[in-house]
Amino acid sequence: MSFESYCQTVARNFEALGALEDVLAQAADIWVEALRNGNKVIFCGNGGSAADSQHLAAELVGRYILERESLPSIALTVDSSALTAIANDYGYEQVFARQLSGLGKAGDVFVGITTSGNSGNILAAVKVARKMGIKVMGFTGKSGGQLAEACDLCIKVPSDKTNHIQEMHIAVGHYLCGVTENRLGSLN
Question: Whole-angstrom Cα distance, residue 131 to residue 113?
Answer without folding.
Answer: 20
